[in-house]
Input
Amino acid sequence: MDDQFFLRRADISDINALSQLYQKVYRETYAEDLSIPYPENELDAYFCSSASPQSFAKKIIDPKRAIWVIEDKRNGDLIAFASAGPCNEILHPDVCLNKDGEINQLYIQRNQQNHGFGQQLMNVVLPWLDEYYPGRPIWLSVWFKNYKAQKFYRYYGFEKAGESDFNIGQ
Output
């Protein structure tokens, strides 16, 4: 990572920027790149519940969770983030126990992908999960047509464990 960017733990002052980054990358990835035809009102409702500044504030103050950001030093913009914590966001509670760790999100702006930022985030997320969830499985969820993300996680030894539905809206 070049000197223009800074990797750090998120703090409460980041909640608005995290919310905006999440929504931007989600739209870029799913609505644009992967062409999922989400109705705008359903996306907005999803973002209000799952990507609001308040939802990020709860995660930041939760001692069982951690969020890291990559910040552009030139303008203070966040270009990527990763969040991790107890495994309770996976849609298969039968296989994922709350004692297990989970990579909840790893989002990088489209124009900043393929520059090593994902690797930098994984280099802090995985050791943190190993420390807080020692000896436990680490889980994550990837959309079945997001082949780029699947390839990225396979590099780190992740394997497909099952399938689940993830619905936004009705």
In short: The domain at 5-155 is CATH 3.40.630.30 (Aminopeptidase).
